[in-house]
Specification:
- The structure is a homodimer.
- The first copy, chain A, is mainly alpha-helical.
- Chain A has helices spanning 6-14, 18-27, 30-39, 42-50, 56-63, 68-77, 80-89, 92-100, 104-113, 121-124, 138-148, 173-177, 202-212, 232-251, 262-288, 291-296, 301-328, 334-364, 367-397, 407-428, 430-433, and strands spanning 131-133, 157-161, 167-172, 196-197, 216-220, 226-231.
- Chain A has 21 helices and 6 strands.
- Chain A folds into 3 domains: 6-115, MgtE N-terminal fold (Alpha Horseshoe), CATH 1.25.60; 131-232, CBS-domain, CATH 3.10.580; 262-433, SLC41 divalent cation transporters, integral membrane domain (Tetracycline Repressor, domain 2).
- In chain A, the strands form 2 sheets. A 3-stranded mixed beta sheet of chain A has the order 1-2-3. Chain A has a 3-stranded mixed beta sheet with strand order 4-5-6.
- The relative contact order of chain A is 0.07.
- In chain A, 65% of the residues lie in helices and 6% in strands.
- In chain A, helix 13 crosses helix 14 (232-251), helix 17 packs parallel to helix 19 (367-397) and helix 19 (367-397) packs antiparallel against helix 20 (407-428).
- The longest helix of chain A is centred in the last third of the chain and has 31 residues, at 334-364.
Chain lengths: 436, 436
């Protein structure tokens, strides 16, 4: 396809969807890519680079296959949010090279964008939006929409700003089209603007956009100056990313790429696997320290697993609920929720105690043993719920994402607690049930 | 606010965002709602009902507070996808009442919509889209856009259909605005349409929309007849819903509502908690059946937890990867992936074996015991990986969602396997390490 017939290829290529352009380009071998970027103009290449999947680092590698000046041109033509992502992934020296090769205004804009922290609204926003001055009439705004339609990332909303570029309202394209040409923009402007601040966490932004069913949301600084917009397609990515993070945490493995080779997959799983193994050895030592008790009542060994298991299950449930809770709500009373969580776990703990007492009593006809097992399970479940609540709460307290919590790690600590509680209680009650 | 000053209230209410209208209405007491729906016209109430959060059942309850004819009018004015959701949540008798009170054409449309299975593209789609005949010119299409803008759920794309209403192409509003009035629509139509079939799973639809960054995607039947469109705001909800499902499965608790009362939360967690407790009792019986072995070597008890724990962790990792894998990809070779997964787990299993052998040997100076523990861990991890792969694979085989998998349930079965393997090996090797 490639060699010689450039025109045919380009005609064919231009009929592809933007997403496919990125996919096709990435699938070329390096040699073919070199032919490809030579025949494409900067704008087409910008579309390709806007739509490349994978890490920003990999995209930067592809960008470096192109001469620096052309690379800088491509960056200028890209959407500002994607461009900023690439700049953030580059070594500092490469970034200054590209910035030097750009028009001053573009370079300044990028410098402003890359100062925003990852996972904030500022890092997500694009600067290609449509702003018009308050006081314009419908006809003129429509003319501007037509002129800027090519460049803007979204033309669903037009943003109305005052002389200081502060956001005062939003007009939907729908309203522009359905109102008379000479009407002033004010009369169709919605001034109850929902906007986010550049420093807001991307999770909160996603929640707002999802609740309101917006196609785009404006981003401002603390003084309401319009800085950019975030479109719903970026929100889709955020929701996916956050969900993968929570899920990965609960399983202690990064599930973001499921098509790894076996060796790569093993390497990815290894760090936590090994850490949990070593921490598991502490359980061994703990149980072994009660060897004397076990020697006197070997039946005790049979119940360790069910006590640790049921405490672990209760802990996993509490943990999952707490992570979602802390992740989705912005301000909640810490103590009120802790008590609510403990009350709920208390119901389950009592239930488990009753079931275990009944089972052990009927099976072994030994109420001392039954009491020790039931009591241990109840205490272990409550401890486990407390732990599962405090860990994500603590992460949030120090401004970390509660989704960073590691399910199996919490479970391992629950195991230790269960062992100590169980054998502690069993040892102290040994005389109650031994020899019966 | 309510009593008397209806006009003030309505003026205030109409400035709210659609989402807020739903929130405010739901927050009223029943008496106030009665005043509210009396002063609102059908269209405003339709917006309210389109934006009510919560189960469809709860929304149906609110709808029944309104007289049947007004209820039917509200349903007619709602977006078809939301309307269909409500019909699906109603008792059959109530549904026929509303259908009888609707214009025939509307009633027929709803009958067509509610036949689609839940979680398919058909169940998600809205029928408020803009279709124009091939052969129109830009000016006429724009006039149509303006006319229908009020009603359509999205006016970002216009769909071009042939005389049999088969989808032949898509025109973006952006292209309509930037091309001359007299141009035929064909010359700016994109005929490489990406569409989905009404029976497609919502997860696959979400993937396509997320990949292509579409604002809306058309839904067709098997003969390419245009049936409706799915907008990105519905996709946002799908992605969230699917993520919650996977996460809930891994934790064995429904995390979709995190603001329950303690008692309600306990009730929600109880079914799986109790089931897992009862299944955990099987572990007790299994360990107890090896009481003779434990009596001879109480130190064995110390290693059950680390072996079951590490096998459980490996299993949880495998399970999380498998669920994501089966959930996100459509056709994959079963055997190739099973082997790849087992190879990856084999690396981890060997590693765990080596670490455990080293630890037990150094600690107890007993290579027989070290070998028994290491061998058990290796076998248990491999069994656990196999199980964690086969469960979601089997769910998919019978056309169930792999996300239905229950993490702690798999872990409980892993526990049984670990106990049998460990005590089986230990019992048969008892002479090798006892008394040393």
């Amino acid at each position: 396809l490639e060699n010689g017939q450039d025109d045919d290829f380009m005609t064919e290529f231009m009929t592809l969807h933007d997403f496919e352009k990125g996919q096709v380009y990435a699938s070329f071998s390096k040699n073919i890519r070199e032919v490809a970027w030579r025949v494409m103009d900067d704008e087409t290449l910008a579309t390709v680079f806007d739509n490349l999947e994978g890490d920003a680092e990999e995209v930067v590698d592809l960008l470096q296959e192109v001469p620096p000046q052309k690379g800088a041109n491509i960056l200028v033509e890209m959407f500002a949010d994607n461009e900023a992502d690439l700049f953030q992934a580059m070594p500092a020296r490469l970034a200054s090279t590209y910035l030097a090769l750009m028009p001053d205004r573009e370079a300044q804009e990028i410098r402003n964008l890359i100062k925003y922290e990852d996972q904030t609204a500022g890092a997500l926003m694009a600067t290609e939006y449509l702003a018009v001055a308050a006081g314009s009439v419908v006809k003129d705004v429509l003319a501007q929409v037509k002129k800027q339609a090519e460049e803007a990332e979204s033309i669903i909303y037009v943003y109305v700003v005052d002389e200081k570029h502060r956001l005062v309202g939003i007009v939907s394209l729908r309203d522009l089209l359905t109102h008379p040409d000479e009407m002033t923009i004010e009369s169709i402007t919605n001034t109850r603007v929902i906007s986010v601040k550049a420093g807001d966490d991307q999770k909160e932004v996603a929640q707002v956009v999802a609740d309101y069913n917006f196609f785009a949301i404006p981003v401002t600084d603390d003084d309401q100056h319009l800085l950019g917009i975030i479109t719903v397609d970026d929100i889709v990515d955020v929701i996916d990313e956050e969900a993968v993070e929570e899920y990965s945490g609960l399983a202690a493995v990064d599930v973001s790429d499921t098509d790894d080779s076996p060796w790569h997959s093993a390497l990815k799983r290894m760090p936590w696997f090994l850490a949990l193994l070593v921490l598991g050895l502490i359980s061994v030592a703990l149980v072994a320290s009660f060897e004397h008790t076990i020697r006197q009542a070997p039946i005790l060994a049979a119940f360790i697993m069910v006590i640790a298991g049921i405490a672990g299950n209760a802990g996993t449930q509490s943990l999952a609920l707490a992570v979602r809770h802390f992740g989705s709500s912005t301000d909640k009373s810490f103590w009120k929720n802790l008590i609510s969580e403990l009350l709920s776990s208390f119901v389950l703990a009592i239930l488990a105690g009753v079931v275990l007492f009944g089972f052990v009593f009927l099976w072994q006809d030994n109420e001392g043993l039954a009491l020790a097992v039931a009591l241990s399970a109840t205490v272990a479940i409550l401890l486990s719920a407390l732990l599962a609540y405090l860990v994500p709460a603590a992460l949030r307290k120090v401004n970390l994402d509660p989704a960073l919590v590691n399910g199996p790690l919490v479970q391992t600590v629950v195991d230790w607690a269960a062992i100590l509680v169980y054998f502690g209680i069993a040892t102290s009650m040994l005389n109650e049930f031994i020899g019966k």
